[in-house]
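Quiz preparation item.
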């Protein structure tokens, strides 16, 4: 299920989880057997429990980022999102590949990110 409303809701939930680092916020984004690829060719974090644990191990402090996004493709079982994440000392362009299940949780999530050159 990948309607624009479902994708928007998921990205808003991701941002909430990013800011809160609350295990329930994080876990609610992902199906029990989800796969989270932090980079396209990285070994994925498998399953909700592993995703939550690994997320919390590398979490950002609340309020340290700004985030803007827009959908590129929203199809029945696939969404591609383009975004920009800005930290105080660096900026990243992001491309997310998101596959949502029928209840709006990510079955598979892959991050492609590129750091902007220093100014």
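Solution:
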């Amino acid at each position: 299920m990948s309607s624009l409303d479902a994708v928007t809701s998921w990205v808003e939930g991701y941002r909430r989880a990013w800011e809160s680092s609350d295990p329930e916020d994080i876990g609610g984004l992902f199906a029990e057997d989800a796969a989270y690829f932090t980079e396209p060719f990285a070994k994925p974090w498998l399953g909700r429990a592993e995703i939550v644990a690994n997320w919390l191990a590398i979490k950002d402090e609340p309020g340290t980022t700004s985030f803007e996004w827009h959908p590129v493709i929203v199809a029945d079982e696939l969404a591609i999102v383009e975004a920009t994440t800005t930290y105080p000392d660096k900026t990243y362009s992001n491309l997310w590949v998101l596959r949502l299940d029928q209840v709006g949780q990510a079955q598979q999530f892959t991050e492609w990110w590129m750091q902007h050159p220093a100014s």
